[in-house]
Amino acid sequence: MRRSTRVPRPVVDRGDAAAQLRDLEDVRNRGAVADYASVVSSKMEIEPMPPAEWKDQQRALVVTARGPDIGAAHYDAIPEFILQGDGGERAYVTTVSNDAPRTHRQAMASSDAKEWRGGEVNQYNAIMDSNTVDLVKRDDLPNGTVVVKAGTVYKQKTDELGHVSEHKVRVVVRGYMQVEGVNFWDTHSPTVKGATIRLFFTEVLRLGLGVDHVDFVSAFLQADLEPGVQIYVDIPEGFETPGKEDGYVWLLRKPLFGLKQGPRRWNIKLHQGLLEMGFMRSKMDEGLYIKIVDGNIVAMIVTWVDDCPIAANPRWMKWIKEQLAQRFKIVDLGPIKWFLGMHVVHDRVRGTLSVVQDAFARSIVEKYGVKEADTSKVRTPRNHNVVLSKEQEPQTDKDREYMKHIPYSSLKGALG
């Protein structure tokens, strides 16, 4: 995890520090939506964030008081700045970062501003080039028109070794503002099951096929909204059309990420394309497509939204990619290396295929503080006969206080 740069520590008088500590603790204890930047110091640029979003955005506000050696209470906290009084009172305000900004302003203020701006430009061009939106004056909207909010999601995509390969930016609509029966209906969209992925790789070895990887560029923008649906969206910061920065909204022609029907509309489009190519959808898993010629399986495709491994021999692989390129905008990633967080190693000569999650395992080991531990002493897979019971819960106040700072649920979920 990349550590944020610390803001210089301002020294204030004891009275101000104590007052600010009380204000900060009050914000934390009440769980109120508050602009804690103004509580702390006007010299520090911190974006207000509702406490309800702290957990979701992997950020937290931690306040510790009275004691020059008191550390931040959160197990993975990163001190951003410290208020210190002459009596030793300190207010630690920290964030837990996922190495990605939450907003356009944070992106432009980060050390990767150039890369994030490049991601924004790519997303803007994809939206405009695909005729996904029309610009509409806000004043021309009928009275009572609901304009759905939109934001941006920033994500660093990594390769099979865990290295950053792309600064991905997506415009995401806040679909919770949509109304069922008004601007969306069905939302079901299948994705391939984990067991089917394992079966897919097994059949690759049995049939002696190669596996390549295809990614669909801005997949949702290649789909279509239902006829008659009108959805107006606020234009997120950083995506304004030059010369029309104020007073305009987007009228969607195609789905954006975040729309409730977005995944379904893309899946319908992809499904239709694969049927035209002669593939059949599996009755056991709607995320698996099979092409049969003269009674033999010649190709298989598994679909996970816009991520599609393809299994075929060289002749059929070339034909499939050509057919997909005629129907969609794709990126040919070549032989599969990385799929859904799994490092895939396929050796056709030896007839072996390995699926490992070494990058994920390393990140978990580092995140939960066992980087230096002798992991060779840990049995894997774990003993499934172990039964946990309520009697094993912390029994004393000391143990319960200790466990407050142990991310047990988070770690258990990561291992699951």
Kindly report the spatial arrangement of strands forming the biggest sheet: 10-11-12-13-7-14
Low-confidence stretches: 1-98
**Mean pLDDT over all positions:** 77
Strand residue content: 15-25%
Residue share in helix? 25-40%
Distance between the termini: 22 Å
Radius of gyration equals 26 Å
Give the helix/strand class: alpha+beta
Helical segment tally?
10
How many E strands? 17
Oligomer type: single chain
Order of helices and strands: HHEEHHEEEEHEEEHEEEEHEEEEHHH
Mass-distribution shape: globular
The description of the largest β-sheet is: 6 strands, antiparallel
Structure explained in plain terms:
It is a single chain. The protein has helices spanning 14-30, 36-40, 104-109, 113-129, 194-207, 262-276, 314-327, 358-367, 397-403, 408-415, and strands spanning 78-84, 90-95, 133-137, 147-148, 150-158, 164-173, 210-216, 232-234, 248-252, 280-281, 288-293, 296-302, 307-312, 330-335, 338-339, 342-347, 352-356. The strands form 5 sheets. It has a 6-stranded antiparallel beta sheet with strand order 10-11-12-13-7-14, with helices on both faces. A 4-stranded mixed beta sheet has the order 3-9-8-4, with no helix packed on it. The chain contains 10 helices and 17 strands. Strand 10 and strand 11 form a beta hairpin. The longest helix is centred in the first third of the chain and has 17 residues, at 14-30.
